[in-house]
Amino acid sequence: MVNCCRSIDLGGVRRKKAFLGTLTSNIREAAVRLTQGVNGRVLDVGCGNGLLFVEAKASGINHGGYLGLDSSWELLLEAKEIFRDNHMSGIPLIQGDGFLLPIKNRSIARVLCVNTLFNLKSKKEVMEFLKEMGRSCTDNGKIIFDFRNKHNPGIRLKYLWHSLWGNFPTRAYFIKEIKAILEKFGFRILRIVPVGKPHKLLALAYLVEAGRAGSDP
Ligand SMILES: C[S@@+](CC[C@H](N)C(=O)[O-])C[C@H]1O[C@@H](n2cnc3c(N)ncnc32)[C@H](O)[C@@H]1O
To answer: How far is the CA of 46 from the centre of ligand 1 (A)?
Structure first.
């Protein structure tokens, strides 16, 4: 499958429903926009099959300093195929655990994680994941992540249904819960971008850019 306007070849994406939904794609696109012009390394935690990097290339962003990490070897292999199909090379991919990143303290300019936190099973896990991302980012670096909006009735209903019948967790949060999580390890929200209609307060999800409490915005 080739996206006609931006020449992206997505033929190598095996689970199209899981990876190419409107919300997941919109979140990746919004996250990529926040990495535009960043000086330094950009790490995508839970990079899956590497679609964020493909999106960056399609948006004309130089992905020279990007690297990806995922726990799934299978998805990293899929990423390599997708990169090949899209004539992309030189993006290091690491198999690893987001709860224990194999990354030096304060070494990455932007640490991203998209379409992943909503599948963690508890608020405590979200905290541990984000804290580890925070540890890895430079003094004035930022972490960028999304969360599904618990104020949106559609999301709430869908996740309630899924919690009854699904075989993996899906969880939404209120902004105040995310703020409280960030505060626990000395971070704060610098920017919050609603993603998906119908309204800013009822957006399907939010993309957050957060930094250390005393750092430059
Ligand atoms: C729904 S996919 C999203 C992939 C990608 N971020 C995207 O937007 O297309 C969630 C990804 O998180 C990865 N993941 C889940 N738990 C992880 C962990 N503890 N450490 C690293 N990756 C993890 C999964 O393997 C999967 O690739």
So the answer is: 3
Residue whose Cα lies nearest atom 13 of ligand 1: it is: 46
Region of residue 63 (left: phi > 0; alpha: psi -120 to 50; beta: else): alpha
Q: How many CB atoms lie within 10 A of CB 63?
A: 19
- 72 within ligand 1 shell (Cβ under 6 A): yes
Per-residue pLDDT reduced to its tens digit, 155-188: 999 888 887 887 888 999 999 999 999 999 999 9
Pocket test residue of 49, 71, 82 for ligand 1, highest count of atoms within 8 A of CB: 71
Q: Is 28 in the pocket of ligand 1 (CB under 6 A)?
A: yes
Chain centroid to CA 89: how far?
21
Mean pLDDT of the 88-95 span: 96
Q: Is domain 2-212 in CATH 3.30.300.20, yes or no? A: no
Residue 47 in contact with ligand 1 by CB distance below 6 A: yes
Q: Residue 18 pLDDT > 70, yes or no?
A: yes
Q: Where are the domains of the chain?
A: 2-212
Condensed to tens digits (0 to 9), the pLDDT of residues 36-74 reads 989 899 999 999 999 999 999 999 888 789 999 999 999
Q: What angle is formed at CA 13 by the lines to CA 12 and CA 17, rounded to 5 degrees?
A: 155
For the entire predicted model, the pTM comes to 0.94
